[in-house]
Amino acid sequence: MHIGLDFEIAAGQTTVITGPNGAGKSTLALTLGGLLPAPSGRLEAGPDFAPSPARRNPIRWRSKELLTRIGSVFQDPEHQFLTATVRDELALGLKAIKRPAAEIKARTDELLERLRLTHLATVNPYTLSGGEKRRLSVATMLATAPKVIILDEPTFGQDRRTWEELTRLLAEIADGGTAVVAATHDLDFADLLADARIVLPDWETTGETTP
């Protein structure tokens, strides 16, 4: 990167990444989530959080190791749907980490109720409304109880009711000790939830290159 970014993601804290279009918000979110390598610099998880002392950069973690540590929610929920029903979508990560069948059912039932998706349990995720898709995408990440949740434009395209539900849910998640990171253009969302902010510059005016 051509800008110095020095920050920490802490348990129970909501960190909001803001900046204009093209500033690199999504790139930074994907990098923090272990889905893209950092173009430069160093990204390290704490020694108690990483799978091993020799692998502290999330890009080096296996998918099963990410599932219980970092959950990423994409801007377009459909990009993370893989199964034919809402219930199966919630169970997918739990099956990947080989949780018992009884635990999987209990956890999926809990999330269906918490996210108001119980009546949609057998529905194909791709047929849901925009708000329902967003709630499901967040629920799938919560299923494996990661310690960090990273969201890219979580409120994009949401109506006011879904916006309020989502902000309440993320506040509850952070209050429970999970670190929440959100890349967003939504300054109302940022003002409401941010404990810390990372503000990326307008690269056109700085003359630098987007990270």
TrEMBL record:
The keyword Cytoplasm does not apply. It comes from the Bacteria. GO terms for molecular function: ATP binding; ATP hydrolysis activity; ATPase-coupled transmembrane transporter activity. Its EC number is 3.6.3.-. Residues 1-211 form the ABC transporter domain. Belongs to the ABC transporter superfamily. GO terms for cellular component: ATP-binding cassette (ABC) transporter complex. It is an enzyme of class 3 (hydrolase). Keywords: ATP-binding, Hydrolase, Nucleotide-binding, Transport. This is ATPase component of various ABC transporters with duplicated ATPase domain. The keyword Disulfide bond does not apply. SMART domains: AAA (SM00382). Signal peptide: none annotated.
